[in-house]
Amino acid sequence: MSTPLSAVVDVDVPGPTISRHLYGHFAEHLGRCVYEGFWVGEDSEIPHVDGIRADVVEALRKLQIPNLRWPGGCFADEYHWMDGIGPREQRPRMVNTHWGDVVENNHFGTHEFMRLCELLDTEPYISANVGSGTVRETSEWVEYLTRGDDAPMSALRSQHGRSDPWKVTFFGIGNEPWGCGGNMTAEQYVAVARQHATYARNHGDNQLYRVAAGASDGDYAWTETLMRHVTTGLGDTEPSDIYQGISFHYYTIAGTWADKGHATEFTRNEHWTTIRKAHQVRELLAGHSAVMDAYDPTRKLGLVLDEWGTWWNVEDGTNPGFLYQQNTMRDALVAAVHFEAFHDYAERLRLANIAQTVNVLQAMMLTEGAQLILTPSYHVFEMSTGHHDAQRLDVRWRSDTARTREVDGEQVATVCVTASTKENRLTLTAANLDPDTAQTVELHLRGAPLTGLTGRILVGDDVTAHNTAETPDAVTPTAYDGASLHSGPYGTVLTLRLPAASYVSLTAELDPTPEVSSTR
After folding, report:
1. Of 20, 387, 448, 462, most Cβ neighbours within 10 A?
2. DSSP state letters, 379-418
3. Looking at the domain assignment, is residue 120 inside a domain?
4. Structural domain tally of the chain?
5. Element (H, E) at 222
6. How far apart are CA 365 and CA 455, in angstroms?
7. How far apart are the first and last CA of the chain?
8. CB-based contact 374:380 (threshold 8 Å)
9. Nearest Cα to 193, choosing from 238, 144, 152, 228?
């Protein structure tokens, strides 16, 4: 056991709200995410609700997923939404050129997706086709979705069985326009985005949160271009309402884009390189936030990370275009690194979406016929729901260097701890990123006593541990008995014993009116 790490948390000094939308998800027409993942069809023997897999819905409801992004991804910019409405047997087919060059039958379209969102009790995040679509398509899709009178698209929606409009919160203005979304320059895209965003109207009481498609990784120049052009050009001193958020994408890989590494068979060096790459999201959040702050110091616009997660080589024997990969405890730890960074940048970051929900990349779940397999990443999301819409509590390490090690010439944190409070309830999550060495953490909780401390832990027999059809519970949460409380000179000391490669979630009740106030 290593020397204890020490940090201070003032539980009576809440910070910014951690939006639940930082725990969003992503479902693209890619591989088996939609078909066989969410959609099995109304004739399937697999239990379903209106063609949507019942077990997937039940599992995702436990995650309290706040929003779901659809239909892409790269697919969004070749998807023409009118092909996905009306009787399914009459819907035209198309070729999914980006992902496997397969024929798409459009059986899962707007009505099916909005029904899925209703079943999940989640907010839709629609991505418009900017790459190959028209401004008219964007305008009419928003009208079809959200307008309630007898307008042409409202009438068409009623004709297809839905008289009432839906509520749509998030609306993406294309996807990756610098690549699969049109191979545009930033200047080209910003002109097109302003048009599409302008005609993505607010109908009735539905207010869209429009997200401009932003940079890859650390392309701060792209973000700067979007920010520079977001004003109307009439001398405004703050951003206009053309769009409300700017996105960027960042994936964690241990290798190169040509050879990303194996999902389940990796060395300790590859593990630590992965952790180092995951920590880089903090640098990117800081960089894009700084660019936005220069133009928007009041933080009217939000930063959006609507694609993130691990990306490995596909599993042997699967279609390379389907991006099917297994998911180990390492992936869960990568998620933990991101959660900590998301919380720390909660004042600017408004929305995030892991890629992707089912059977693709860092999936929450995998399906094998009628069987549903929950991944370690699923469990980390489920164990973190207490942070949704809670107020962040700053974790101040007494010696930040004590919790780091050198990886590829950089100092990398080996432990993540993040805390929040909501309605006098403390949620604290902690991850030991070291695959071989247990860690002890002492948290000095000042400002209010704790009662009713309970916890769970996620840990496997190794960082490579993962769940399969044969061993679906190899990595699953269990009760945690590694926490202890005792009184310190300035409040309660919570000691956590964290096994190697583990994730812990704790909750406790706070007394908001202690007899003796904490000492600062």
Report:
1. 387
2. HHHHHTGGGTTEEEE-EEES-GGGGEEEETTEEEESEEEE
3. yes
4. 2
5. helix 220-228
6. 23
7. 31
8. no
9. 228
For residues 440 and 312, state if they share a domain. no
Residues 248 and 215 sit within 8 Å (Cβ to Cβ): yes
Supply the range of the domain harboring residue 217.
Answer: 20-388
Of 337, 363, 388, which residue is a domain's last? 388
384, 396: one domain: no
Whole-angstrom Cα distance, residue 444 to residue 495?
Answer: 9
Look up tokens 């028209």; give the residue: 134
109 and 138 fall within a common domain: yes
pTM: 0.95
pLDDT at 231: 61
Q: Report in angstroms the alpha-carbon separations of 483 from 302, 428, 457.
A: 37, 12, 11
With respect to residue 515, please indicate whether it lies within any of the assigned structural domains: no
pLDDT for 230 equals 81
276 in the Ramachandran plot: left (φ > 0), alpha (ψ -120 to 50) or beta?
A: alpha
Same domain, 230 and 331: yes
- Between 268-295 and 329-344, two packed helices, what is the crossing angle to 10 degrees? 20
Q: Residue 417 falls within a domain, yes or no?
A: yes
Exposed, middle or buried, 45 (CB in 10 Å: 0-12/13-18/19+)? exposed
Would residue 520 count as lying in a domain? no
| pLDDT tens per residue, range 26-37 | 999 999 999 999
Contacts (Cβ under 8 Å, ≥6 apart) of 16: 346, 347, 391, 392
Residue with tokens 């840990």: 459
Residues 316 and 435 both lie in one domain: no
237 and 183 inside one domain: yes
- Using one digit for the tens of pLDDT, what is the confidence trace for 322-338? 999 999 999 999 999 99
CA distance 17 to 299: 14
Which pLDDT value is given to residue 519?
Answer: 39
Question: Which parts of the chain register pLDDT below 70?
Answer: 1-2, 231-239, 400-401, 512-520
Are 35 and 102 found together in one domain?
Answer: yes
What residues are annotated to the active site?
176, 307
Residue at a domain's end among 388, 406, 433: 388
Distances (CA, A) of 472 to 266, 284, 435, 469, 477: 21, 35, 21, 5, 12
**CB-side exposure of 247: number of CA atoms within 13 Å?**
29
**pLDDT score for 408:** 95
Picking from 327, 381, 330, 328, the residue whose alpha carbon sits closest to that of residue 353 is 381
For the chain, give the longest Cα–Cα distance: 73
- The SS3 of residue 310 is strand
Gap between the Cα atoms of 186 and 199, Å rounded = 20
Per DSSP, helices labelled H in 229-365 are 268-295, 329-344
- The CA distance from 86 to 84, in Å, is 7
